[in-house]
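User: I'm preparing a small set of examples for a lab meeting where we compare how different chains pack in three dimensions. I only have the primary sequence for this one, and I'd like the structure in token form so I can line it up with the others. Please keep the answer compact; I'll paste it straight into my notes.
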Amino acid sequence: MSWTPYYRGTGVPPTNRTKLPKLPPPPPWRAPAQQQETDSRKDAAITYRPVPGLVDAVNAALHLRRPLLLTGRAGSGKSTIIRQIATELDLGEVLHWHITSRSTLADALYRYDALGRIHAHNLRTLNGKAGPHGNDHEDDIGAYVQLGPLGTALLPGERPRALLIDEIDKSDLDLPSDLLDVLERGGFEIPELARHPKRGIQASTADKDRKHTIERGWVQCTEFPVIVLTSNGERDFPAPFLRRCIRFEMPTLSQERLTDIVAAHLGDIEESATAALVQNFLKKLNDGEYVAIDQLLNAVYLLRGAHVPDVDQRQRLEDMLLRGLGRG
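Assistant: Understood. Below is the structure token output for the 328-residue chain.
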């Protein structure tokens, strides 16, 4: 790949449309989802390089059926380990719960669209399809229940599911404590289904186009899910929550480890341009700048070798791609 200015800043398309430039192929990690569907999990599993001690922490969590809490700076590979675990142990597609300050336990377990159900009932009433005294045999409450990532992970099955709870430190103060009861019991109730006269009700799950029959409104796992929680270390957690987790602190990145990561994604890097990018990135880390590994991969992919021959342009692109992210 060589540096080509596809966009020139003129706003004028070529008069001969047959000369329209063809854009280069994207980096492997930026291919559209449909193209990645078959190999993305396998690629992530193969290219990930666990730091020393992390394999033992994962195995401890698997033996004890406890969540694994990984703490470290952004871009240190905390959220990627779950893909390698899921692929190696054949746990299926990884479920993902990304935490924000507005995240609640209820949303992660399930959502009930009461307004949608009422609206559908009113439409059937207007069309004369609802029975007398409010009886509505066409009413399917399961169509208005959607299990979240945690709720789906707790469904019974022959194999445990893999669940990533990403950036738990950005949650409301009470969320880690709210998680304790569910994670200890491995189950939860859906009151709307528990009150329904029908015993088994099909509800949608977090897996695309998949449903599951829920008996008497209760979801209970037969195998505790494999859970990885990530934290950027921006807050402390209550002791009852911490003692129920296997905790691991991601170590400071070294030049050797960064080189190994880049080589795993992009192949052999035995050339001065890539080595200089790795050294510059490491210097930023050691100086306390907030930068992530995916920025380094972007820079190496675009600037390695002689892709950008102009020295000044190359420096501008490097400064742009490796610009600090600020706090979190």
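A couple of notes for your slides: Residues 252-328 form one domain. The two ends are 33 Å apart (CA to CA).

User: Perfect, thanks.
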